[in-house]
User: Fold this.
Amino acid sequence: MSDERREAHESFESEAAARPHPLPALLQRLDREAWKHFYLEHRRLVRGILASVSGYGPELDDLTQQVFATAANLVRSGAVVLRGQPSGLRAWLAAIADRHGRDERRRRRSARHASIPNDGGERVAAGLDPVVHQTLSHARQVWERLPEPLQSPWILRHLERMTVDEIARTLEISAATVKRRLTQADAQFQAMADLDPVLVDYFRDGGRV
Amino acid sequence: MTERRRSDTRPLADLHEDALRETDAGAGEGAERYMAWFDRHVAAEASPADGQADGRPPSASAVDATATPENARSLPARARALVPVVIFPAALAAAAVLAVWLVPSRPDPAPVQPSPRIPPPAAPMFDDPCRSAVRARGDSPLLDDFEDGNELVALREARNGYWVTLSDTDPDGAEPVLVPSLRLDPSPGNRYALHVAGGRRRTWGASVQVELGPPCYDASAYSGIAFEARGPGRLYAGVRAVDAVPVARGGACTEGCYQSHLALVTLESGWKTYVLSWSMLHQDAATTPLDPRRANGIEFLVRPDDTPYDVWIDDVRFVHDSTDGGSP
Assistant:
């Protein structure tokens, strides 16, 4: 990996050439109102990614808090220097959310594996239409069987409706790699969905990714 | 005969939105919780040394922004305690808040003693990825024999990474996957291997690497790695620990990252097996031994002095004690 690339990973300076935006600088100074604005603006994105990766359970808000806490701690500790444009911040936050979601999913799996009392796994959201819940639940069972490198591009593209460029920035891979992984993920998802009775009905009735 | 219940055929993304809405306790409540945490752990403890990236005291406009009761929650915790007392009249509150806010930013007085809750400045404040390490059982050591012809490792013991090749001449952002090549001496059971070749490299060289999949992979069930390789040339091979991976990429490294634990092997012009125990692997600039419970990936590195290069790698695997022959 080139030195330049390493530096880019650590500084999130993807759009440094553009005119400076005040938000990254305010966040870097740990300005309270800037962080509140940052939270409110990106809370939906973080919840969406966490839910996609780890489910719609009651712990979703706690996990969301953890993601923003991690972001603030990274800045506060000096591990990350925020510069550039807000779009880079969005990708950075999405990457943290993706990692937290995966950690949570692994934690639940290992807890189940070790027979530790655990309420993890599939959570049913109160008030959610059971048909919607069932469809999402089965869809998640399918995308969880995708190879891990294919999961995040699929989720960010099809559930979070991110552009290829946004996904590339979030996952720190090239746009070409995103496209290739999406192609593979779509094909594998469809092949597995064709074997799932709920998703077969969903797609037969006109549902789509 | 019961009628099948018809699906909700909106796109999955719309169903996802529904589910998010139904499970949402509300942005306002979430923001209040988050800002309460922020006030306790960040704002109250921020100082020019660690809170201000440029080392300057808070700007005048930042102080002004706290001068209304509504914004008074943005004050440090000890200042917030004053708010109920001085909430009326507004002008007095503004003056009091302004005064309290300015106290920690004055350069002259004795340094403010850090709260006991503040960790040492050097201690990175992030979750250790190894709190949720995935542990290899030790019964399926093959990482990849490349016979499937794809860039994925063998999907065993939760490993699911991609082989990639990088060199110091690659453009930024490039992460080309490395697909196995047909061996020069194929046999029915052994047709493919990884092959990389290139010209002169001048900065750090070229590498073949794979992330094991989980950010922190506990490989302590094994005693080392082994692989087949042919050159000729020199190759550094070993393990990248999670402590060498930047925090931003899911690791635990905050400075001097990408220092893998490697050992030098001298390749011959024919295939040979190389076995590297954990104790043989070391970093360039540090003496920290490899902790196999904190593995992140496997790396093969050709340094600039050893370029141009033409290297074949096959049958990469973990090993137990006294398995496999050969030595570096």
